[in-house]
Write a structure and sequence with these properties.
The protein is α+β, with helices and mostly antiparallel strands. Helices cover 15% and strands 29% of the residues. The strands form eight sheets. It has an eight-stranded parallel sheet. The chain has a six-stranded antiparallel sheet with strand order 3-2-4-9-6-7, with no helix packed on it. Strands 1-10-5-8 form a four-stranded antiparallel sheet, with no helix packed on it. Bound molecules: alpha-D-glucopyranuronic acid. Residues 193, 362, 425-426, 485, 515, 560, 580, 582 line the site of alpha-D-glucopyranuronic acid.
Length: 612
């Protein structure tokens, strides 16, 4: 007998946010969508002439937009004064950053206006339409047919607007003012060691849905079990009290239940024959959800992850995380990675290295990454860009960081591969900072208590003994992992110093070294003491790995970094030229000596831990 219980628990994330007119459209790739990707006409607007009038008043201050590029207006006749024209303006590819598409925009930070036109064929008169953005860096002001849809900040998480009441059958004008200026109160703030790529950097989709549709769903193992599937479904629309059917064809499990007046329903399905997901056996199960005229399909894996003392247990078994860090950049093409092919290239290289884990640094990467990691059997650490020195006492900055975290969790909550939510990287110890990060941990736990919460913390050196490293960051109290970055041999001393390092780690938790490494110019060979040579980098790896093995709770690492990546902070001519070259693979895809050192270490680790 299948026991099904209706639990009136906290709904899932789908609401018209009071302050924001955005909606959360989860699982967008499984919906009825039309891609709006392609060549969009653009206007590069360094003085934001299209947004502010000459008195610096925004044209979109009131609902009726008073001027500016949002109106996408063409001169009616030869007498009318209009000083812009999208139709005759150049075009840029969407998705794509502008920096790598046009040399003139390589260093450009400011506003660029994007415009595309589209028609709509409604498949049913009562259907609803949404426009969905995978990500826009950093600020997006979005307009449709001269009406403001909303303003989104945060360059790495999805957002969507309902356009049902505004959309026409043909000639819809979608205009986006994209601005990637850096701000001290933003997340990230003004200083990062990655390129501030601007643009509509991920997919743009037109989503069509029935009047009442499945807005969001969560499928996972019921916390604390390995034989009960918990599913939550959230409907949105005028007629929420509908039967919601859920089925797992390969598991021969199905259930049908009436949603409550808020359109929410929760199931618990006993599943005795579940094969759990793991890197060695990344089993995914088809799930189908239908309600009224709407239906969604997805593929999900079931696994448990927990920290137990100094161990990390995946499906109850100890695991060592053989990882590497990645930036969301396709080194071959240059510019932001955004597609499934980009993800397959990067995760393929991580697999070649022998990884079962990746740290997607320092911001939410595109959704293809986690979905492909589900399929390829790679565990993921996902992070929000609370990076270096954020404004810790600024409540809007905190709200912004919380929103990015919430949007990331809503997007990837069904991904078995995602096991760590990281709320920060290398942030300076201090009360305001720790309070800020603590509230992010609470936010993450309140939205998803089934994954490990962490951050890349700082290490300090014992003032009495330069070889004595101490990890006692007070923030470590609130995390599930004790993870920190360590750069002995590169930012601190020469490689031989690594051999003498000893650790004092305050926390009895699994230790994950979230970064270590050294710069190396691929193809530059010299003795192991010559900085930027492959030999120097390889030596740092050869010495660091055995040093880390001495740390009692050492349960994994994600060396910095899989590939060389663009950074405005790396300016040494001939050697760096705007690239951080700590990659194990160059920007041309060529492997450095250290790649083999780490690959060898991981092969040995896999053998020692019985991983195939
Ligand atoms: C830091 C930081 C990275 C940076 C790296 C480096 O630890 O987290 O974003 O790129 O070190 O200096 O190369």
């Amino acid at each position: 007998m299948i026991r099904i219980r209706l639990l009136l628990l906290a709904g899932l994330a789908f609401a018209i946010h009071p302050a924001r007119s955005e909606v959360v459209i989860a699982n967008v790739f499984a919906r009825h969508t039309t891609s709006l990707n392609g060549q969009w006409h653009v206007i590069v607007d360094p003085y934001d002439t299209g947004f502010w009038d000459y008195r610096r008043r925004p044209y979109d201050e009131s609902a009726k937009i008073s001027g500016g590029f949002a109106l996408d207006h063409l001169a009616g006749d030869r007498t009318e004064l209009v000083e812009y024209n999208f139709d005759t303006s150049p075009a840029l590819k969407v998705p794509g950053d502008w920096n790598s598409q046009d040399d003139k925009l390589f260093y450009y930070e400011g506003s660029v206006w994007y415009r595309t036109k589209f028609d709509v064929q409604k498949t049913a008169p009562d259907h609803r339409f949404f426009v969905y953005f995978g990500a826009v860096n950093y600020e997006a002001n979005v307009y449709l047919n001269g009406r403001k849809l909303g303003r989104h900040i945060g360059g790495f998480t999805p957002f969507a607007y309902e356009i049902t009441g505004l959309v026409k059958e043909s000639g819809n004008s979608l205009v986006v003012r994209v601005n990637n200026n850096r701000h001290a109160d933003a997340v990230p703030t003004v200083n990062t060691d990655w390129w501030n790529y601007g643009g509509i950097t991920r997919d743009v989709l037109l989503v069509e849905e029935p009047a009442t549709f499945i807005a969001n769903f969560l499928v996972r193992l019921k916390p604390g079990t390995t034989n009960t599937i918990e599913t939550r479904v959230q409907l949105d629309g005028p007629d929420k009290e509908k039967f919601v059917k859920i089925s797992f064809p390969s598991l021969k499990l199905a259930a049908d239940l009436m949603a409550d007046q808020d359109g929410f329903v929760q199931y618990e399905l006993p599943a005795t024959n579940l094969v759990l997901w793991s890197p060695e056996n990344p089993v995914l199960n088809d799930v189908e959800i239908s309600a009224g005229g709407d239906s969604l399909k997805d593929r999900v894996g079931f696994r448990t992850i927990e920290a137990s003392g100094r161990d990390i247990l995946l499906n109850g078994k100890k695991i060592f995380l053989r990882g590497v860090c990645l930036h969301e950049e396709n080194p071959r093409r240059g510019g932001r990675a955004w597609s499934e092919d980009d993800a397959r290239l990067l995760l393929g290289w991580a697999k070649d290295l022998g990884c079962n884990f990746v740290r997607l640094a320092h911001y939410p990467h595109n959704e293809h990454m986690a979905r492909l990691a589900d399929e390829m059997g790679i565990l993921c650490w996902e992070e929000i860009p609370v990076y270096w020195t954020i404004q810790w006492t600024n409540s809007e900055t905190l709200a912004n960081a919380k929103q990015q975290l919430a949007d990331l969790i809503a997007r990837d909550q069904n991904r078995a591969s995602v096991v760590v939510w990281s709320v920060a990287n290398e942030t300076p110890v201090g009360e305001a900072r720790t309070r800020f990060l603590k509230s992010l941990v609470e936010e993450a736990r309140s939205r998803d208590g089934t994954r490990l919460i962490s951050a890349a913390m700082e290490v300090r050196t014992d003032p009495e003994d330069e070889f004595h490293k101490v990890v006692d960051d007070p923030f470590g109290e609130y995390t599930d992992l004790c993870s920190f970055n360590e750069y002995t041999g590169w930012y601190d001393g020469l490689p031989d110093k690594i051999d003498r390092i000893k650790w004092s780690i305050k926390y009895d938790k699994p230790v994950i070294i979230s970064e270590f490494g050294a710069d190396a110019k691929q193809g530059f060979h010299a003795d192991a003491l010559t900085r930027f040579s492959e030999e120097y980098q390889a030596d740092v790896y050869k010495r660091t790995l055995p040093m880390l093995e001495k740390i009692p709770g050492f349960r994994g690492c994600t060396p910095w970094i899989l590939c060389d990546f663009r950074s405005p902070r790396r300016l040494l001519p001939v050697i760096q030229d705007g690239w951080n070259i700590k990659g194990l693979i160059s920007s041309h895809g060529d492997r450095k000596l250290a790649f083999q050192v780490l690959k060898g270490f991981y092969a040995e680790k896999a053998r020692a831990t019985g991983a195939p």
